[in-house]
Write a structure and sequence with these properties.
A nine-stranded mixed beta sheet has the order 1-2-3-5-4-6-7-8-9, with helices on both faces. The longest helix has 21 residues, at 2-22. The protein has a single domain (45-366), classed as Rossmann fold, CATH 3.40.50. The model is unreliable at 14-20 (pLDDT under 50). Strand 8, helix 12 (319-335) and strand 9 form a beta-alpha-beta unit. It has helices at residues 2-22, 33-43, 55-72, 137-140, 146-155, 159-165, 196-205, 210-226, 243-254, 288-291, 294-298, 319-335, 358-366; strands spanning 84-91, 95-105, 108-117, 124-130, 169-173, 231-241, 258-264, 306-311, 342-347. The chain contains 13 helices and nine strands. With 370 residues, it is α/β, with parallel strands linked by helices. Helix 8 (210-226) packs across helix 9 (243-254). Residues 1-24 form the signal peptide. InterPro entries: AB_hydrolase_fold (IPR029058), Abhydrolase_bac (IPR025890), FrsA_esterase (IPR050261). Keywords: Signal. This is Abhydrolase family protein.
């Protein structure tokens, strides 16, 4: 009898469930975050996208967009007097490498590897070099191991050395949060020493941004460069790959002393790259997509020269976005009458630097070296 009752209850529950399911709504197809955020981005119209037809329209746009981007980059620290500590010096065949520390805030000294070409006369252009997420070592061939050498060779990471070997003063900054400046190690990577997660969380809570604070450090390094006898203070540029390329996009907006920029493995479209592909959180500038795309940010440089460097097989900064952005920049520079001031090296390769055009670009805009 008891068994029969249990069977009856089971049968009734199945029947009731069937009735419930028969009358239920279908599960919506759009209920995951990928679809939701794709839709939000597709419907968002950037409020300050570049569309100028005349130099006057460009200038009116630039004033508004410049103010917006500077605001988005966050609060900057209080400026402190310039102080520099010279701690190391090493001679190489074509340059001398110094290690200096530049006080950039009341509580922080930025480590910088300062490369001065041998046997130079007069003043030389100087390039601020910003590394990516591999940290400083492979970018200046420091503590080099065979695997690291292979990586540096393959991706041409040593552009600070390359330019120094060809007569340019270079300053390779240990970007805040990497290597010896590391705080809490990013929980999702074991090497290199880096603290992007902490830098991002702490800056955002303070009303700052990682991009803004790291650019602030670079601006104070430019203060240092201006004091050096071998540096032509009217010819200072910036070069960066990957995360360093992202900083190289924002630095010229914050500092008009940056007269040209070389941006590698970082220029595409926010919508295609940082928004759509897993990236380090330090690449995300809050609110930027509501204002414009990467091309709109870089158009703020105009008429200052810019060289875009992109591997056509870069999987995290898609080339299609870079090509569209380059088209926009050609229009912007054309409106100002200087289409020759924007160029691109879309080379066969992946997420890497390329020197196919760097020396010609520097000579074109900074002149022949003495």
């Amino acid at each position: 009898m008891r068994t029969a009752l249990l069977r009856l209850k089971l049968l009734l529950s199945i029947c009731l469930a069937s009735v419930s399911l028969a009358g239920a709504d279908e599960v919506p197809a759009q209920h995951d975050v990928n679809q939701a955020f794709a839709g939000l981005a597709d419907r968002m119209q950037p409020a300050q996208a570049w569309s100028a037809k005349t130099p006057q329209e460009h200038e009116a746009w630039r004033e508004k967009m410049q103010a917006t981007v500077v605001d988005l980059l966050g609060t900057m620290p209080e400026k402190v007097p310039l102080e520099v500590k010279w701690t190391e010096k090493q001679e190489f065949e074509k340059f001398t490498r110094h290690k200096v520390y530049v006080r950039t805030t009341a509580d922080y000294w930025s480590p910088v590897y300062y490369f001065v070409p041998k046997n130079i006369t007069g003043k030389r252009p100087a390039i601020v070099c910003l590394h990516g997420h591999s940290g400083i070592d492979p970018y200046i061939r420091l503590n080099e191991t065979p695997p690291q050498k292979e990586k540096t060779d393959h991706s041409a990471l040593d552009y600070a050395l390359y330019m120094a070997e060809h007569g340019y003063v270079t300053a390779a900054i240990v970007v805040r949060g990497w290597n010896e400046t590391q705080g809490r190690q990013d929980w999702y990577v074991k090497t290199p020493p880096r603290s992007c997660h902490q830098v991002t969380m702490n800056t955002l809570l303070l009303g700052m941004t990682p991009q803004g604070l790291r650019c602030w450090d670079a601006m104070r390094v430019i203060d240092f460069l201006e004091t050096q006898d071998e540096v032509d203070a009217e010819k200072i540029g910036v070069a960066g790959l990957s995360g360093g390329g992202t900083l190289a996009m924002y630095l010229p907006i914050l500092d008009q002393r940056v007269k040209l920029a070389m941006i590698a493995g970082a220029f595409s479209e926010y919508r295609l790259s940082i928004y759509n592909i897993n990236h380090c959180i330090c690449n995300c500038l809050p609110g930027i997509m509501a204002a414009g795309e990467m091309a709109d940010v870089v158009a703020l440089f105009a008429p200052r020269p810019v060289l875009l460097i992109n591997g056509v097989d870069d999987q995290i900064f898609p080339i299609d976005g870079a090509r569209r952005g380059f088209d926009t920049l050609k229009q912007a520079y054309g409106v100002l009458g200087v289409p020759e001031n924007v160029d691109a090296d879309f080379f066969d390769g992946g997420h890497a630097w390329s020197n196919n055009k760097t020396l010609a670009f520097l000579e074109k805009h900074f002149g022949e070296l003495p």
